[in-house]
Specification:
The protein has 2 helices and 9 strands. It has helices at residues 2-18, 146-149, and strands at 27-41, 45-59, 62-73, 81-91, 97-108, 112-123, 125-126, 131-140, 151-161. The chain has an 8-stranded antiparallel barrel. A hairpin with a 3-residue loop joins strand 1 (27-41) and strand 2 (45-59).
Length: 162
């Protein structure tokens, strides 16, 4: 019983300490955890990727982001690709729930280029005052060929709020 009470207190203190992390002027850096970016679309099937992000909180709960990514596909006929983009996040509640929107430029070796807007919903779970684990679900819309390149997936990232 004592262990359960201690765990409850730690969780409550973590949620309270997260309150100050989404204030104006904070800097954010993040990357996907161990290069994991699981997703599925019609052309590639399963793939793995690595993403890096940097952000700045312009206002309380509002963050602008820059991001770069590399995707490695599992199929031989689907090329690996690089992407760069910009985005924004809104932290709905002070404990870490967020909504995101972004737009990425995709370039692959096989002369494939696409502009893909996307949306994301996730949660910033604070491990300490500044370090988070951020699972999120995302959807990226392809305008070039919707059935093959639009992507839905799960990301598990690590973030640092300074």
């Amino acid at each position: 019983m004592k262990k359960k009470l201690m765990l409850l207190m730690v969780v409550l203190l973590t949620a309270i300490s997260a309150n100050a992390q989404f204030e104006q002027g904070k800097i954010y850096t993040g990357a996907s955890l161990t290069g994991l970016d699981l997703s599925y679309n019609g052309k590639k099937g399963m793939n793995l990727g690595l993403q890096a992000r940097a952000g700045y909180l312009l206002e309380d709960n509002w963050m602008v982001l820059g991001q770069a990514a590399f995707q490695h596909t599992g199929k031989d006929d689907a090329p690996d690709y690089f992407s760069v983009g910009v985005g924004a996040r809104y932290y709905i509640v002070q404990n870490g729930l967020f909504l995101g929107a972004n737009c990425n430029f995709i370039h692959a070796n096989s002369n494939y280029n696409d502009l893909m807007p996307g949306v994301e919903v996730g949660y910033a779970f604070f491990l300490s005052r500044t370090v988070t684990v951020e699972p999120s679900i995302y959807y990226n819309q392809s305008f070039k060929k919707h059935a093959d390149y639009s992507t839905i997936g799960l990301k598990i990232g690590v973030g640092i709020y300074l």
